[in-house]
Amino acid sequence: MKRLLACLFAALSLTAQAQAPQPPELAARNYVLIDLTTHKTLAERDADTAQDPASLTKLMTAYVVFGALKDKKLTLEQTLPVSKRAWDERKGDPSLMFIDTTMTPKVDELLHGLIIQSGNDAAVVLAEGAAGSVENFVQLMNRQAQAWGLKNTEFKNVTGTSEPGHKSSARDIATVAAHIITDFPEYYAYYSQRDYTYNKIRQDNRNLLLRRDPTVDGMKTGYTEAAGYCLVASANREFPNGKRRLLSVVMGTTSREARANESQKLLNWGYTAYDAVKIFDAGKAIATVPVWKGEAKEAKLGAADAIYVAVPHGDATKLQTQVERTDPLVAPLNKGQRVGTLRVTTAAGTPVAEVPLVVQEAVPGSGLLGRAWDSLRLWIK
């Protein structure tokens, strides 16, 4: 799955724009809609424009904290001190969890405050606890962005406060959100919680879609004067062939209502304009091909995961598949080694998807005599 996610916005799905359904008109400066089931971008506008990401920044803040939990650098039950720097976040009336220097909240409580209440103070405490200082933590955020190839992103802080050089884009934000869903499913439930009470102060999750659409289970809101009202929304709807998750990023709207309405419009359009079609099940051999110089004479090729493709509604019966592979295929072959590509097209030849094909079971090299015999056969061939 991580290999596929790394190609999320590359050439996995190449539906011709001329035949693509036209997205609805949105009252938003920038947006992108991703089908996470098929790894296809369904719609976008100025998705690579770098701009103020506001509190959408906290998606990366949370991701780095989740990594610290995975690496045992933090635990959910661990308590952290509240520094004066975190306390000073109250100035200017920003988003707060409302913690002070007399408190020692648990990491779990701080994650609730970060994700549900969008607490700037919680972000600072978590950053200091995970990396020793906010500056060190910001370096980790930027290293992760660079590792994913996010060319339009640079972080200057952990909160999303407007600052020169602090920037991201709709597509980059979608990548961060998708990695949270894929890499840390055990923590994703934080994003679906509608409210949280800490220190007897109850605050609602600002993602209005959590209350309007039962299929929406995340993720994050943001607002600054420069960014406008922004929303990352993720929905997971049930269909006859299984669940299908869409992820939208809408930036630069004029109000909380607008960002919710435009996100809902985009999600609904994605589910109705496109169908997700399962081409092959996970673990199923897509092709059995001859192998030279191996202990086995054949190898089964398949995909790392079940293969879904997104096609305009009604076009599912018009798909064709073609296997392109390395020839000759010479052992030894490792399990998971890429040796080909499955190309999916319409009947007219329009590209729909390209999926890497990998060896499903390792094929060790044969003995000296067997390799010599196959070398002769290949020379004659």
Automatic annotation (TrEMBL):
Transmembrane segments: none annotated. InterPro entries: Beta-lactam/transpept-like (IPR012338), Peniciliin-bd_prot_C_sf (IPR015956), Peptidase_S11 (IPR018044), Peptidase_S11_C (IPR012907), Peptidase_S11_C_sf (IPR037167), Peptidase_S11_N (IPR001967). The keyword Hydrolase applies. It catalyses: Preferential cleavage: (Ac)2-L-Lys-D-Ala-|-D-Ala. Also transpeptidation of peptidyl-alanyl moieties that are N-acyl substituents of D-alanine. It holds the Pfam family Peptidase_S11. Residues 274-365 form the Peptidase S11 D-Ala-D-Ala carboxypeptidase A C-terminal domain. One of its GO terms (molecular function) is serine-type D-Ala-D-Ala carboxypeptidase activity. Its EC number is 3.4.16.4. Keywords: Carboxypeptidase, Cell shape, Cell wall biogenesis/degradation, Hydrolase, Peptidoglycan synthesis, Protease, Signal. The keyword Secreted does not apply. Residues 1-18 form the signal peptide. Pathway: Cell wall biogenesis; peptidoglycan biosynthesis. Removes C-terminal D-alanyl residues from sugar-peptide cell wall precursors. Belongs to the peptidase S11 family. This is serine-type D-Ala-D-Ala carboxypeptidase. It comes from Roseateles saccharophilus. The lineage of its organism: Bacteria, Pseudomonadati, Pseudomonadota, Betaproteobacteria, Burkholderiales.
